[in-house]
Amino acid sequence: MSLTGEQRQRYARHLALPEIGEAGQEKLLHSKVLVIGAGGLGSPVAFYLAAAGVGTIGLMDGDTVDLSNLQRQILHTTASVGANKTESARARLVALDPSLSIRCYPFHLSSDNAPEILAGYDFIIDATDNFDSKFLIARACHEASKPWSHAGIGNFHGQTMTIIPGQTACYRCVFHEDGAPVGGTPQGPIGALPGVIGSIQALEAIKHLLGIGTLLTDALLTFDALTMSFRKVAVRRDAGCGVCRGGIDAGD
Ligand SMILES: [Zn+2]
Question: Which residues of 169-179 are buried (b: 16+ CB within 10 A; e: fewer)?
């Protein structure tokens, strides 16, 4: 398969990059990424994946658009208040590029539906806003051997890391379920924050799909918007990890 004239024009800046070129763009067009959560983080991730020409994008979210979401969830519009978030998001992504395949899953991930859904994707994005979902994604991606990007955001801070199951530290290696912060819904985040962190997730997915660069693995990148500081902290696999057992999986 080769690119159409329209695609050559649309992706001209990718084609000009030796690291991508026509072969890389075709790879992206044949790639499938699942974005779990079509809110603050999911908005920039899905927008940039679609713009980059990732040919199939899955959107999973059981929530509807609320007016208070629009301060940061840029996939949605005033007109879509009350609509399911995946349907609202699909309308925006199709407007960006009608040739993309956008699959909607208007419900939340569960341990029951995860195996079948994840099996259809090359890379998974954790764009959720709660710890239960993140640990569920960690388990599901490990069991399905799917590479994925974790991210979380708070009032003025964010964090992200990329996980290659069986090879690099997983989310559960770094964050323990009994150590998850309590206290309910955060008050933020400030509006533009998910754009910073979500864009990094989209870049990680694109790099993985293209097989270029160095992924944000075995490291946690943290961001503080108030001081405008990024910190990259090395993390290690945990031999006692309840998800990946730190690579010690023979025999038991
Ligand atoms: Zn682990």
Answer: bbbbbbbeeee
